[in-house]
Amino acid sequence: MRTPHNESVAPDIAEASRPAKPTGKAQPERKCILSGEHSPRETLVRLAISPPHADGSCDVLPDPHAKAPGRGAWIGVSRKVLEDAVAKGQLKGALARGFKGGNFNIPDDLPQRIEDALTGALKDRLGLELRSGFLIMGTSKIAETARSGRVSLLLHASDSSEDGRKKLDQAWRVGSEKEGSGMRGITLPLDRGALSVALGRTNVVHLALGEKRSAARVQSAITRLLHFAPIDLGSEDDGAETKSDAGQTVPHSDDELSI
Question: What pTM value is reported for the model?
Answer without folding.
Answer: 0.80
